[in-house]
C-alpha cells in the first residue's frame, strides 16, 4: 500500500497486491471409463507444457501413468506439477490365517474410491471377521467404474499336546539320543523350531548331559518343550546266560565298558580255552554248552581287567 500526502494536508492511498505463483493439477486418481481429464490450475500463468507435449491447461489421458505439467508466468518463473493416474483395481490386505479365538482385519482402502460393498454387507473400507471363508469386495470409483477382489481366510488349528518324552538316562558317554517333537499336521500352518543350542531343524541329536528345550512356533502360538538327559555308569557283567535261542540273554553281553578294544578269553570249568577275541563285540555264548565258564576281560593298553565265572544255563 502506498500513501501520498499533499501540502494542503490531504492524502491519497493506492494498493497493489502481489501474489506468489502457484500450480495445482486437478483430476481423478483413477482412469475410469477409459479416459480422465486433468486440469492445471495456475492463476496468472501465460503458458503450459505437459509431459505429453500438449500446451493447453487441460489434458485428456487414456493410459495410466504419471503426468507432469510446467506452468510459465509473465515474469519468467516456472512451476512444475504432477499427478498419477492408475487403473481401477482392488487389493485386499490382511492375514489369510485365522488363529483360534482371534479375529483379523481385511482392508481394501484405495485412493479415489468413493464406495465399498463387501460380501458381508459392510460398506466400510475395512472389515473385522472371526470366521473363515471367502470374502469379496466391490469398489466404486469416481466416474462410475468398479473393480472387485476376493480373499480366502483359512482357520488354523491349535497345536496338539506336544512332548519331547520323559527325562532319559544313558549308560555310555558314547551313546547319543535324537530328540524330536511329534508331528503336528498341516492344519496348524507353517511350523518353525528353535532349539536351546540355536539350531532350527525339527530334530536334535544330543550326546552330552543337560536340559534340552525347543520352541515349536506357528503363526498363532508358541510351545516350549524340554527333556533332561543324564549319563550314569551302567557297567554290568552277567553271571548267567541262557543260550536257548529265545532272543533274550542268549549271549554274554557286557554293558558300560569304558571306550576302547576289550579282549575276552573264556575257559570251561576244566581250564580248556573255548573262546578268545581281541575286540569283543558281545557275541559269545549262543552255542555254549550248559555249564560253568571262567572269563577274563581285559584292556591291555590301559591295564584294566575283569575276571569271574558265568554259567550257561539250559
UniProtKB/TrEMBL annotation:
Tree of life domain: Bacteria
InterPro entries: PKD_dom_sf (IPR035986)
Protein name: Gliding motility-associated C-terminal domain-containing protein
Organism in which the protein naturally occurs: Hymenobacter frigidus
Lineage: Bacteria, Pseudomonadati, Bacteroidota, Cytophagia, Cytophagales
Amino acid at each position: 500500500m502506498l500513501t501520498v500526502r499533499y501540502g494542503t494536508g490531504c492524502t491519497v492511498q493506492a494498493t497493489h497486491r502481489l501474489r506468489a505463483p502457484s500450480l495445482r493439477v486437478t483430476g481423478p486418481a483413477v482412469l475410469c471409463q477409459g479416459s480422465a481429464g486433468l486440469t492445471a490450475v495456475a492463476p496468472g500463468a501465460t503458458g503450459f507444457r505437459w509431459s505429453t507435449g500438449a500446451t493447453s491447461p487441460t489434458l485428456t489421458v487414456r493410459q495410466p501413468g504419471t503426468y507432469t505439467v510446467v506452468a510459465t508466468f509473465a515474469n519468467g518463473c516456472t512451476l512444475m506439477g504432477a499427478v498419477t493416474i492408475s487403473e481401477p483395481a482392488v487389493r485386499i490386505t490382511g492375514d489369510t490365517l485365522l488363529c483360534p479365538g482371534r479375529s483379523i482385519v481385511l482392508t481394501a482402502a484405495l485412493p479415489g474410491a468413493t464406495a465399498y460393498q463387501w460380501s458381508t454387507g459392510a460398506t466400510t473400507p475395512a472389515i473385522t471377521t472371526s470366521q473363515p471363508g471367502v470374502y469379496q469386495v466391490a469398489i466404486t470409483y469416481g466416474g462410475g467404474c468398479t473393480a472387485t477382489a476376493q480373499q480366502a481366510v483359512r482357520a488354523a488349528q491349535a497345536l496338539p499336546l506336544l512332548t519331547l518324552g520323559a527325562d532319559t538316562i544313558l549308560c555310555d558317554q558314547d551313546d547319543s539320543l535324537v530328540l524330536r517333537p511329534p508331528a503336528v499336521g498341516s492344519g496348524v500352518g507353517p511350523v518353525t523350531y528353535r532349539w536351546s543350542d540355536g539350531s532350527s531343524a525339527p530334530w536334535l541329536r544330543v550326546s552330552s548331559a543337560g536340559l534340552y528345550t525347543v520352541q515349536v512356533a506357528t503363526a498363532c502360538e508358541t510351545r516350549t518343550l524340554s527333556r533332561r538327559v543324564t549319563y550314569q555308569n551302567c557297567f554290568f557283567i552277567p553271571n548267567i546266560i541262557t543260550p536257548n535261542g529265545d532272543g533274550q540273554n542268549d549271549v554274554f553281553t557286557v554293558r558300560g565298558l569304558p571306550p576302547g578294544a576289550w579282549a575276552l578269553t573264556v575257559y570251561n570249568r576244566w581250564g580248556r580255552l573255548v573262546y578268545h577275541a581281541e575286540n569283543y563285540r558281545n557275541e559269545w555264548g549262543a552255542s555254549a554248552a550248559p555249564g560253568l565258564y571262567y572269563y577274563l576281560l581285559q584292556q591291555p593298553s590301559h591295564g584294566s581287567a575283569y575276571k569271574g565265572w558265568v554259567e550257561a544255563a539250559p
